[in-house]
Design a protein that fits this description.
binds zinc ion; TIM Barrel; alpha/beta; single chain; binds L-rhamnitol; eight-stranded parallel sheet; two-stranded antiparallel sheet
Length: about 425
């Protein structure tokens, strides 16, 4: 018997349908973030990365143009199993020399991305870019007390709604449009509610732009703090969650780097699913803070995937990767993160959830612990290898040799 067959039998002893798990994961879209490829720089400005986020490292070979970024993403796509969705920021508009500010962006500025998405059978998710721009005044955008600043960013948000609708119509896949700003203060503010009321009204104005709720899924992403904005963040957890709860069709987006370090998003997923028809996730790896390290196949990553699967919520949770590491080969960073989340999903789908839930409900907590520990050493690697083979991608670390070759032939020439 080959390794896959014998591994499959072992899972079947626990009542797990392995073939069904593989068939399921193949159709689950996971959003691949374009911004890992160029350290969140984008194409529409030349200034520094602002908004309280930071890439560290200076590994050679980052993408400098849309052509390079697309080529790099194609490499990643060829090395990862599973269904991909493209995640774009507005700052990745392809302007071809045209002078267009963010408040006047149009669908046509993203036509090349649509072509790219169609070529790879991907839907598109979108993000207005409320950072790295001269109109971020005193670190504020949608919550600014300066009406002209606030107006500029509201108009940017509205333009992004129209672009999101265009993406959905072109690809036939709903577009998740995520609103995140780094708005906040470095030190103790005198007024916390004022900025939040302005933020609330700004998002409401953005959402007043007409769109089809089946096609565009607006989200609000919360955050606890950013670099240089340690004392106050306008879009805090309570603010964002309440906003989504009170606005029909608006989803809460949880980024697992955006909470106090002992809080876990795996526990928040089932809490939100009790109330929201749909939620969205940014999957990242925070080390002590929102450091945006590459996602690994670690305990909390596995636990998040488990919650989505055992809540039977695979069609209610929009999953997107969000991290950026400039200290290592960027193609590898993307690939490790995407493959890790795929592993987490597959491993969650291979968990005998019905059996474990039954033990909990019968209060057989001893047996639950025993089985949970046993499951950890089931021959997962053999099922994973089989899944990769059926997807036509490398099953093991051999993908890295391809990245090394790409680095030699392509990345090292970018100077
Ligand atoms: C920042 C947020 C946000 C960004 C991207 C680039 O803390 O996580 O989602 O990472 O929009
Ligand atoms: Zn995020």
């Amino acid at each position: 018997m080959d390794r896959y067959e014998s591994a499959k039998k072992r899972y079947e002893d626990f009542g797990v349908d392995v073939e069904k798990a593989i068939a399921t994961i193949k159709n689950l879209p996971v959003s691949l973030h374009c911004w890992q490829g160029d350290d969140v720089k984008g194409f529409d400005q030349d200034g520094p990365l602002t908004g309280g986020i930071q890439t560290t490292g200076n590994y050679p070979g980052k993408a400098r143009t849309w052509q390079e970024l697309m080529a790099d993403m194609e490499k990643v796509i060829s090395l990862c199993p599973g269904k991909k969705k493209l995640n774009l920021h507005a700052s990745y508009a392809i302007l071809d020399g045209e002078q267009v500010d963010r408040d006047r962006l149009e669908p046509r500025h993203f036509a090349k991305w649509v072509e790219f998405a169609k070529k790879h059978n991907m839907g598109i998710d979108f993000n207005p870019t409320f950072f790295s721009h001269p109109m971020c005044k005193d670190g504020l955008t949608l919550s600014s007390p300066d009406e002209s600043v606030r107006r500029f960013w509201i108009n940017h948000g509205k333009a992004c709604i129209r672009i999101s609708q265009y993406f959905a119509e072109e690809t036939g896949v709903p577009c998740v449009m995520n609103i995140w700003t780094g708005d906040g203060y470095k030190d103790i503010p005198a007024d916390r509610m004022g900025p939040r009321m302005r933020y609330k009204e700004s998002i409401e104005e953005i959402l007043s732009e007409p769109f089809d709720k089946a096609k565009v899924k607006p989200c609000v992403e919360s955050k606890v703090f950013g670099i240089g904005v340690e004392a106050f963040t306008a879009g805090s957890a309570e603010f964002s969650l309440s906003f989504a709860a009170m606005h029909d069709g608006c989803l809460p987006l949880m980024d697992n780097g955006h909470y106090h370090p002992t809080e876990v998003v795996s526990d928040k997923i089932p809490a939100l699913l009790c109330f929201f028809p749909e939620i969205a996730l940014h999957i990242t790896r925070p080390i002590r803070w929102d450091s945006d390290h590459v996602v690994l196949f670690d305990d909390e990553t596995k636990e998040m995937a488990k919650e989505i699967v055992r809540c039977d919520a695979l069609d209610r949770v929009y999953m997107a990767l969000d991290y950026f590491d400039a200290s290592i080969n960027r193609i590898s960073a993307w690939t490790v993160g995407f493959r890790s989340w795929q592993k987490a999903l597959l491993s969650a789908l291979l968990t005998p959830n019905a059996l474990l839930k039954k033990l909990q409900d019968e209060n057989s907590m001893t047996k639950l612990m025993v089985l949970n520990e046993e499951i950890k050493t089931l021959p997962f690697g053999d099922i994973w290898a089989h899944y990769c083979e059926t997807e036509g991608v490398p099953a093991d670390e051999s993908w890295y040799a391809q990245v090394e070759a790409y680095e030699k032939e392509v990345l090292s020439k970018r100077v």
